[in-house]
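Predict structure. Chain length: 432.
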Amino acid sequence: MTFRTNLFAGAVALATSAIMATTSFADTVKVGFIGSLSSDTGLSTLRGAEIAIEELNAAGGVLGGKTIELVSADTGEDPTEGIKAYEYLAESEEVDFIISGSIDDVSLGWLPRMVEYQIPTLDTWTSYIGIIDNLVTDYDNYKPYFMNIASDEALATLYIDFGKDVLVDQMGWKSVVILQEDTAFGGAIHGLVAEALAPVAGIEVVDTIVYDVATVDFAPIFSNAQASGADFIYLISSVNSQVVSSQYVKLQVPMGMTGVNVAALGQEYWEDTGGAGGGISTLSPVPSVGFALDPVSQAFVDTYQAKYTSRPKFPHFNGFNAYHGLKQAFAAAEEAGGFNNTSWVDAMLGQDLVLKKDGEMWLRYAFWKPGEIEERTQRTYPHNARFDITAPYDDGAPSMVVIQWNEDGSAGVVYPDKFKTQDFGIPSWVKK
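Prediction complete.
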């Protein structure tokens, strides 16, 4: 009798454990983060997602009271590791949704896995237009993918305007030498600068210097740039950008330098360059360093800075993208009844968050729908962030802004005028 009682009790215990385990699994929605856990860009996305998840869970959870669980996979900013990371999130963790803080080359590495697993995925940093082109040519396979940062083509369009309005009309610069890192990002931006910025803005590209991302001595490269006779340098750098930046200042290179400098997008730039970062300007997605924030964005920053004391002490633009994007992804899931493929995609395309400052539209988090034609470029950008590239920017935020670091360690927006907080200038050692 005792044996039978114990056997029965054991069976009940096992059944109860199984039910609890099933209930626990059913009551959880898994979000996977993919990106570098040791970079400012990767951590910005991760932390933006963490804050959004904490707020959603504190508000009662999602999809009928379920708790969101966040799991991470480190890419180390390496494409091969990125593939492994995506496979881990898909196969081992069986996540429902993936949020990415990956750089372009890494996203290109795991993108075929996204097509294979069909997991809804939001990229918050990568801006490679080639990924959006995949949605244009093969929508059914790529439709779980969204990019809530304006793509390269939109980036280049604003820089054409900056080139004409500021570099040519204001500074009188008519020729450029391009310094380009040897990455997919570098190649994509170079093509847009050479084929769009130069001819439309009236700037001649006199030379292009491609360098390895492991380069530590830029003196010969800057000497070649100076020997080209160009009026200014256009830098394209997403990896180790602080090295080329600090050497530009320390070598007192007698040419203005602008472009796309990822290191300069974060508040730690000044510290990373040892205070040798003044005079450098860069295109930046919004919100940027030196960008005036709307109340909603400022509240996110306040929460972020109260929670995190290690770098990055101020979120990069992709931290904002992750925070708002994850909330939009779950709002779409609520509407679709989960992260179902087609129904979730349709609901995600309907998300539209408008943030205002002083009564006017300041930032907008929405997406281009398949088949929609952007008026200025006359092309489609399915599942890309809905950008506005025509002043007065009353249909959303601009695709990007141009920021500049000053020799006193401050930074501000220099273009476009609506978001401008300071004038564009050249370093003190460069002759006008």
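Summary: Residues 27 and 177 are 57 Å apart (CA to CA).
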